[in-house]
Every structure is written in C-alpha cells, then in structure tokens.
Write a structure and sequence with these properties.
Number of helices: 19
Strand order of the largest sheet: 1-2-3
Largest sheet: 3 strands, parallel
Shape: elongated
Distance between the termini: 74 Å
Structural class: mainly alpha
Length: 522
C-alpha cells in the first residue's frame, strides 16, 4: 500500500498551494487505501515560528482531512546525522572546512553559491579527520560524480526527466553547526518512513535530482515522484503573500465563508481533472475519481482582482455546495457568521497569525483538530470553538430555507438575512414602499390593510398567503401591489427572501411594529 507525506515548513501561514499539495496526497492515499503521513519539516530554526505551526494545524483542521501518522523533523536529528555519517563513510561526501560559511545559505533552491566542486573535495581523509578532531568547523558536502553521466527518473506528472552530473554542484548535507540541510533531512526521513510516493509542488523538481543521489547513496529505494503544476496569479507570477496578500492564505477562505468541501473541490480542479470532466464533486466522489494520471502539466491560474478577491469558479462551487446542503446542516455552518463571534474577513496583518504551538512530541496521536488550549490566544477566531446558542440555531433553521439559494458565501447571511436579527431596520427611502403602477396613497392603504389582516391572520405560510391575497381583492389591486409595500416595510428593501416565509419567521409582533413604522414614513 502507498505511503505519502505532507511535509510543510512552519515558516508562514498555510498557503493555498500547500493546502492543495496536502489534498492531493490525501486523495491518493485514500483512493489507494494507503497511509497519510504529516511531518513538520522544522529544522530551519531561524525561520520557524509557533504561529506558523498553529496556522498549519488550524488550516488542516478546517479542511477536515485526517492523517494517519504525525512527526516532527526536529525530533529526528540523530537519524539525519547517522544518514550523513553513512554517506561519508562510503566516500560519497567530504568535509568542507573552507566553505563552511557558504553552507549556511539556504539549500532549497539548490544554489550553493560556489563552484561545482569545492576545493576540499580531494583533501586526504587523514587530514580531514585531523582537522575535524581539532574542532575546526566544517560543512559536509555530497560528492557528486565527476564522470560523464546523468541522474534521472520517471516523474508521474512530467514523465522522464534527467540532469547531467556536471550541472549539479557538490551540495551540503550538514551545515557547520551540525544541522541537516533540507535535502538530507527530507531524504533520510522519507527513506526511514518508507514513503512510496512524493507528491509535491513543481518548484521542487530541480531538487529531486539531488534527492535521487542521496537515496542511492543511502542504499534506499527512491520513491515515485509526482510534481504538481504551480498556482499562478492573474499577473503571471507565482502566488505569494508578499505580492498578492491574504488571498493566498487558507484562513482567508475559511473566514470569508467558504465551505471546506467547496474549497477542496476548487483546489482539486486547479491542476487536476476527472476523466468525466465534472466540476462539482463531493469529497467521496473525488476520492473515487482521483488518480495521478489526471494531474495536468500546465500551471493553474487563480483568478482574482482588487475588487473581487476570490476566483469566480471558487464562488460558483461554494454556492453549489451551499445549495446542496441539508438546511439543518447549513444552519449550523451559519451560526458563527451571525453570532457574537462573527467578524469581517481579516486584514493582511491578521492572516495566518497565532501565538500557541501544537504539541511537539513525536508520539502525538494522529488528529484532525488541535487540543482546544493550543489555540488560545489565536488572532483568528475558530468558527467551531463553542457550542451554538440553541435559540439562535433554531431561528437559523427557519431562516435557512429562505436564503439558501441567495448565498455564495456563508458570510452573505449578514447581508441577505440581516433584517431577521435587527431590532430596528436601517433607514430606507419611503419611495421604496410604493408598488409598481401605484402611488403613496396606494402604498399607505395597502399597509393599513395589511396591519389589519395580519393582526388576526394565522401566522403560517399558507395562512399569510391567503390573508394577503384576500386583502388585495378587497382593495381591488393586484397581488404583487399588495405584497411589495409589505415586503419593504418588514425587510427594509425590495429584494428579499420569499415574503410569506419571511413574515412567518419574523413573527406577528415584529411585522406589525415594522408596518406601523412604514405607515408613519408615508
């Protein structure tokens, strides 16, 4: 059975590109009944932060996709150093005393900032051992073969790829402080954890050639690589927080009111497509249909503007998923957006910020959510952190069927259903009360009659329908001319949910009070 891993570095918030990588790994594992491993690659101690760790776990918790095993790379340093020693003992690495400082530069890009082979490559082993025993600092570098040849592999997405030995520098395995580089730590962990498939972003494709060399030097079987197309912005650049702001953060989508299922659906279609070309998919359907063969080579563009921060396809999918939900389930999702904890989408400075770490022990059991106390102090509100108020939830269960077709985002409840929760309606123009082909006198007579019939009508959908239609007959006007002034009077605007259901939810007292206030306007 396949074993896949998601290995984020806790150096920033959970990027939507990283979320897509997790989702593709998870789908592959679940489709093939394999194992999903979550491993925090946290050996870059200068850039790691507890806030980033929390952001990663918050994002994955919201997605609701579980994992089977969990590790921290920093708990595995002994394994990494043992792997480095094994490669050194085989003569596949050498100590670099002169270029220790250069090894401190990041190794993710593959650029060491030196010539391809370091001057210490041919230092006799005896001299190398003597200087190391004397305490002279060094970096440990991989000895890339000098012979003509290449390293290559069959990528599950990009096909056969290769790189000549002469185009690969002697890259660092250990820095001068003894810490492993990205290349060594990843390969040592992947080999030890028996990872069978490495599914990651295309930006790592250039690193895979070095990783092939490390796996071979360790005597380990190389996993199958599958590199994913990049996520690009409309400006043609790779999505980045520095350039594109909070739109690239998973928590921005969560706090705006995306459903996890819709967000997963959207990200899956950025670089992958099922054979039947369907677009709206449930999680179960996606698991059934997902294959690596369905991943595209072309980079995917996330479309957004300053005016509309979310891709139209994402909004459409979210609206489709909202409409497909059972009203009671949707009501529960809406609670945080109308309750006391509701708040606007965070600013750029808010995105991905938090202050408490996830527990760091390697024995932490697999989990889809963090312990409650590990989120204390987070500046991002958790929409599921407290039980819903029963009265609010009950009211939303009645409101939801009226507004379900009108929402693209969960936060839209704040605009399409605000009048259900307002003690007083915001000011509106009295001209709004005048029905089509009518005047102020007609509007006033309609509202006076409505106040009269609603005072005694059965306050159910059918009872209200019958009472107001009968009133329109008595007044000798069309039903629409009867309904329009009443709708504006109780909702404060002409565009509103279906009238009779709205009146029923608002209740007799609220409706009569608002109609009386509307009469005063005329």
């Amino acid at each position: 059975m396949p074993r896949v891993r998601f290995a984020p570095s806790p150096t920033g918030f959970l990027h939507i590109g990283s979320a897509r990588t997790y989702i593709f790994n998870w789908l592959y594992a679940r489709h093939n009944r394999g194992t999903m491993v979550l491993r925090l690659d946290d050996t870059d101690v200068d850039r790691n932060s507890d806030a980033s760790v929390t952001s990663i776990f918050e994002g994955l918790s919201w997605l609701g996709l579980d994992w089977d095993e969990q590790y921290r790379q920093s708990d595995r340093l002994a394994l990494h150093r043992a792997a480095a020693q094994a490669i050194f003992d085989k003569g596949r690495a050498y100590r670099d005393f002169n270029l220790a400082a250069a090894a401190e530069t990041t190794e993710r890009s593959g650029a060491a900032g030196t010539s391809r082979h370091g001057p210490m490559r041919e230092l006799p082993r005896e001299e190398s051992d003597r200087r190391a025993a004397a305490g002279e600092p060094f970096a440990l570098r991989f000895r890339v073969p000098e012979v003509a040849g290449h390293v290559g592999f069959a990528d599950a997405v990009y096909g056969e790829v290769s790189k000549a030995f002469e185009d690969i520098e002697d890259f660092a395995l250990l820095r001068s402080d003894g810490m492993p580089t990205y290349h060594l730590a990843n390969c040592a962990d992947d080999a030890d954890l028996r990872i069978s498939h490495i599914i990651r972003g295309q930006e790592h494709l250039s690193n895979a050639f070095k990783h092939q060399l490390i796996f071979e030097a360790l005597g380990a079987e190389s996993p199958t690589f599958a590199h994913l197309p990049l996520l690009m912005a409309p400006d043609g650049m790779k999505l980045s927080k520095r350039v594109h702001g909070p739109v690239v953060s998973v928590t921005t989508y969560r706090d705006a009111g995306f459903l996890p299922a819709a967000f997963i659906n959207f990200l899956c279609l950025l670089g992958w497509s099922p054979k039947n070309d369907r677009e709206k998919l449930t999680r179960e359907e996606t698991v059934e249909l997902f294959t690596l063969e369905g991943i595209n080579r072309a980079n995917a563009v996330v479309k957004f503007t300053d005016e509309e921060p979310f891709d139209p396809k994402a909004l459409w999918l979210n609206a489709e998923h909202i409409r497909a939900m059972a009203p009671d389930d949707l009501a529960r999702e809406l609670v945080p957006f109308v309750g006391p904890a509701s708040r606007p989408v965070p600013s750029t400075s808010d995105v991905g910020q938090a202050s408490r770490p996830v527990p760091s022990t390697p024995d932490t059991p697999p989990q889809a959510t963090l312990p409650a106390d590990s989120l204390a102090g987070s500046s991002i509100s958790r929409h599921d952190e407290s039980p819903a108020d029963p009265a609010l939830l009950d009211k939303l269960r009645h409101i939801t069927p009226l507004i379900q077709e009108r929402m693209k985002l969960l936060r839209d409840v704040q605009t399409v259903a605000d009048f259900f929760f307002a003690d007083q309606l915001p000011p509106y123009d009295s001209a709004e009360l005048i029905p089509k082909k009518g005047d102020a006198a007609m509007a006033k007579s309609v509202l006076v009659k409505a106040r009269e019939v609603l005072a005694t009508a059965e306050f159910t959908h059918d009872g209200l329908d019958a009472a107001l239609r009968a009133a329109s007959v008595e007044l000798g006007i069309k039903a629409g001319q009867m309904f329009e002034p009443v709708r504006v009077a109780v909702c404060g605007r002409k565009t509103a949910p279906p009238l009779f259901g709205t009146l029923e939810v608002l209740g007799r007292e609220t409706c009569l009070t608002r109609i009386a206030q509307a009469i005063e306007k005329l």
